[in-house]
């Protein structure tokens, strides 16, 4: 039988105090002060944050967990059902900012709290006709302004990622009637204009995105099927898309966060039309792994952050249709005593 040292590469040490830091994850030691064998584990969990000022679905966001930007979305009051509200979040409280230049929901989002990007989406004016727009808006930390650069294709509910001067939009759809158009189109933004990018391997709407323009990710979404709810992952290098690992559960309208195609988190969404999910999956560039579940199942939630420190806010949670609930996801190193039980 192999020894612990042969498996892990390190022996069990006698220490008077506990180890800390990711470099020691999985290490076992004997604490001579407490006379206990211990180890350092990585533990993931969602915790409650400060509620949004207004319950909102189809909201979007960017930034990090402690410096996020939330904008747009939909509420029951209307028509129009879309809103132009914008907020900044510091990890503790929400602060209203000047509004978007137009009411909009189901947009693409990229950037940071002080350099945000909002593009596409629809105004849901109550007419039953919901065309997706080509408008792009930029936030500078003080106000929103319409960019002269417009998308080549009006689209909503697409995967998106990147920063204000280097972003991507992938997939999504044009609302009907008379007919709905679903896309495999990718567009790239350079801070002033949009240009065509590589074609997605699938035609998909309500997919989710993460990462950067040159290391981007599209996951989940809704396709013609079967199956209708996609578990596919596609990775983008700034030129072309390639298939990645398959999600454990196909869902659309996911929240997502992540720094690259090799480090992402996807959460919530729905595995059928009326369904909402609390599932969370983490991606390492090859494999999706199930991790801690959201406390509140939701889809069309706003999101921000990275794989180990993400944020979910608002979303569709029937009944009622919208929620103002906010949750923060963190992965922390925790010392655990080793027992025989």
Structural notes for this entry:
This protein is mainly beta and 341 residues long. 1% of the residues lie in helices and 38% in strands. Strands 1-2-3-28-27-26 form a six-stranded mixed beta sheet, with no helix packed on it. It has a four-stranded antiparallel beta sheet with strand order 4-5-6-7, with no helix packed on it. A four-stranded antiparallel beta sheet has the order 8-9-10-11, with no helix packed on it. Strand 26 and strand 27 form a beta hairpin. The two termini are 22 Å apart.
Topology (SSEs and partners):
Blueprint: H1 4-8, E1 13-15, E2 28-31, E3 36-48, E4 60-64, E5 67-71, E6 86-89, E7 94-96, E8 108-112, E9 115-119, E10 136-139, E11 144-146, E12 159-163, E13 166-170, E14 173-174, E15 181-182, E16 186-189, E17 194-196, E18 208-211, E19 216-219, E20 233-236, E21 241-243, E22 255-260, E23 263-267, E24 280-283, E25 288-290, E26 302-306, E27 309-313, E28 326-337
Parallel strand pairs: 1-2
Antiparallel strand pairs: 2-3, 3-28, 4-5, 5-6, 6-7, 8-9, 9-10, 10-11, 12-13, 13-16, 14-15, 16-17, 18-19, 19-20, 20-21, 22-23, 23-24, 24-25, 26-27, 27-28
